[in-house]
């Protein structure tokens, strides 16, 4: 034992010094990378202060009710640009970046749909975007806007749920559809680990580099990819995935969104003929998704209806953007007193 202690006393200071040096180098490496990212990817939109940190909000067009676009998991708000440009002539149309994604500052733990809805609400109000809102949520964004409707029912005039996530996914989807689910006591430590890995350069070392010269802003996919692979975004996506059960639970608690227009857009493209037991399970789940789970979402409002898109997969904004535009246009064509009224 004395020998071990002597060895430990001899080498421990060197190990600590080495770790400190590596941490400092990693921190400087990441700081330099973030400066280059800011030059290559200047923010598009308005950075809105929501209380000590900022959320990126981008609005085009004018008129009411305002249309608010909420992207799916791992997709920055910029991915809505092609659809936003087509909706802006009809009414004011906005997209935003969730905390830690795109050009928004990181947010505190936990990064749940409730936290996202509260952030969005604060950004809209501080930017002067008045309710009522037509909320359009794709995938994870569907949970966000459903929770938003539960928190602020008087401010939501209509909903479009685009392949919205559903709280029954963890229990009904085949294992191949589900990612790992660490126990709840590990969520916060893992969040801190992801945050540290982003801040000290580890994620940047593992991620593909952002090109020095990005294509023009019409090359949406290239910019979305660059934004999505930044270390801060990877850490936020990972942390948001950890607390998925909390987001599902918050959405599940919203059993009714009021007597408002609600359109549920559902993928209709089925997988190829099954060749294995796993393929058969996937096909069976697709049918459950289309004919049981998604219709449940349409019943959140007495004015809800489902539209199945036969040529689209889960990525409706890319596969069938016209369906989203048509759904929003249909709602905007309704008399305004049937959509909703702003708070007095």
What does this structure look like?
- The protein is of the alpha/beta class.
- It is 47% helix and 13% strand.
- An eight-stranded mixed beta sheet has the order 1-2-4-3-5-6-7-8, sandwiched between helices.
- Helix 4 crosses helix 10.
- The longest helix is centred in the first third of the chain and has 39 residues.
- The chain is globular, with a radius of gyration of 22 Å.
- The N and C termini lie far apart (75 Å).
- The mean pLDDT is 90.
Biggest sheet: strand arrangement: 1-2-4-3-5-6-7-8
How many H/I helices? Answer: 13
What's the total count of β strands? 8
Task: Give the helix level as a range of percent.
Answer: 40-55%
Q: Summed up, what is this model?
A:
By secondary structure, this protein is an alpha/beta fold. Helix content is 47%, strand content 13%.
Give descriptors for this structure.
47% helix, single chain, 8-stranded mixed sheet, 344 residues, alpha/beta
Helix/strand layout:
Blueprint: H1 2-40, E1 46-49, E2 54-60, E3 66-70, H2 81-87, E4 93-96, H3 113-126, E5 133-138, H4 140-151, E6 156-162, H5 169-172, H6 187-199, H7 202-206, H8 220-228, H9 231-242, H10 244-252, E7 262-267, H11 277-298, E8 304-309, H12 316-319, H13 321-332
Parallel strand pairs: 3-4, 3-5, 5-6, 6-7, 7-8
Antiparallel strand pairs: 1-2, 2-4
Helix pairs in contact: 3-4, 4-10, 6-9
